[in-house]
Design goal:
Oligomer: single chain
Mean pLDDT: 80
Radius of gyration: 15 Å
Largest sheet: none
Number of strands: 0
Low-confidence stretches: none
Shape: rod-shaped
Helix content: over 70%
Strand content: under 5%
Structural class: mainly alpha
Distance between the termini: 51 Å
């Protein structure tokens, strides 16, 4: 039962990390463009 819960949690964590990285990167690009 534990692995069944860990897999979705790890997937959501990686997705959140990738989204946060893309968001911060887009903000940095906007700063360079300004």
């Amino acid at each position: 039962m534990v692995p069944i819960l860990i897999v979705p949690l790890a997937y959501l964590m990686t997705m959140a990390n990738s989204l946060s990285i893309v968001h911060s990167h887009s903000e940095r690009e906007q700063e360079y463009m300004a």
